[in-house]
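Translate structure to sequence.
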């Protein structure tokens, strides 16, 4: 740390250094944060923005967007190729350990690789957004994050403190997340995992038949 070349050391810190504790933290303690009305309104926008599945409730929203490639499962429901691989967007009212109440926005990409290679990719993606592509809000970053389902994947995480809850902020960040997904997919030529041979042969009739047979076998053995 060095002093200013002409003014020397400051006797008091600049006001902008106290912004978090002066403005954000107090609001995050007293405001209830984002509510169900925010998420239902957002869901109406998401359903017209290319989402293949959207759910909203009192504490948040989840939406899936096509990412490319197919799982091969349930072809009768999703067409001859199966279910498309999707990127998962989650919006959740939650508490930040420092900033208090607010909303977390997470965008998970369906990428599979070694941890070392994923970390390398994440570093390149963060540099890309700060050095080459600056068309969305520069809040948050790419990282390895664990989903509610327990698997760890490439994820962009953003936290919106309560003080930013105004106007169409969630809609704007939604649009930014979708643009971000398309940008990194194109820039880094990202692809979803390929289909396995067994997955290509599974259809809805096969799954239903297997469930019925399994229930019959359990009943004969006295299992629920």
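Result:
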């Amino acid at each position: 740390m060095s002093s200013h070349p002409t003014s020397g050391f400051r006797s008091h810190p600049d006001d902008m250094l106290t912004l978090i504790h002066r403005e954000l933290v107090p609001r995050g303690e007293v405001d209830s944060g984002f509510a169900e009305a925010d998420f239902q309104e957002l869901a109406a926008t998401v359903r017209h923005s290319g989402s293949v599945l959207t759910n909203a409730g009192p504490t948040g929203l989840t939406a899936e967007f096509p990412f490319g490639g197919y799982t091969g499962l349930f072809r009768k429901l999703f067409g001859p190729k199966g279910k498309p691989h999707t990127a998962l967007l989650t919006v959740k009212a939650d508490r930040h350990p420092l900033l208090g109440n607010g909303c977390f926005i997470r965008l998970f990409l369906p990428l599979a690789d070694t941890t070392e290679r994923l970390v390398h990719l994440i570093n390149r993606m963060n540099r890309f957004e700060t050095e080459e592509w600056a068309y969305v809000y520069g809040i948050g970053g790419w990282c390895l994050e664990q989903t509610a389902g327990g698997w760890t994947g490439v994820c962009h995480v953003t936290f919106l403190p309560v003080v930013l809850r105004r106007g169409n902020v969630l809609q704007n960040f939604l649009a930014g997340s979708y643009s971000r997904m398309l940008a990194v997919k194109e820039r880094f030529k990202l692809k979803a995992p390929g289909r396995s041979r067994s997955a290509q042969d599974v259809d809805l009739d096969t799954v239903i038949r297997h469930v019925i047979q399994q229930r019959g076998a359990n009943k004969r053995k006295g299992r629920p």
